[in-house]
Write a structure and sequence with these properties.
7 helices, 83% helix, mainly alpha, Rna Polymerase Sigma Factor, Chain: A
Length: 190
Amino acid sequence: MSYPTSIHSHLTDNELVKQYKTTADKIYVGELYKRYTHLVLGMCINYFKDKDVAKDITLQIFEKLFDELKKREVENFKAWLTFVVRNYCISELRKMQVQLNRDIEYQYQLKNQLHNEDNEEAIEEEQKLEALEKAMESLNPFQKKCIELFYLKNMSYTQIVEMTGYSVNEVKSYIQNGKRNLKMIITNTK
């Protein structure tokens, strides 16, 4: 990045820091930004391995300098800046690692929760099927046969009539009464 020469470009780093502390005019930090943005960006790229993230972090660091320079006695700006950059990058990496660990833990817990819910649903379905099978044994043989053919084998009334020799009305009656009896049996066993 190349910036046009400013009226403050002749000042040393320490003079720019002193002027900023005295006046709080951000133009002095802006001059330091022009001088050192390439250094800070390079360090950030080294830490984060992603140019876009490094650019964001570089801007955050220079924003932080507005407050830090007011509070600190800086004798060698470049050395102090590299110290600030290193600490800031390490701190951000730790935050990212903590967030990544939280995200991984959340995903793990969510996966376990879904797995447990699936297991609970499967157990519940298994129990329902066992109750249905047990209740089926309680039906009279005509009702049991018609319900098995209609619901489990997906046969039509006509197919059941042909297979069993029952009349259509008998088949409908056996299915209807069988359903009602199953419901009563299952409800009473809960």
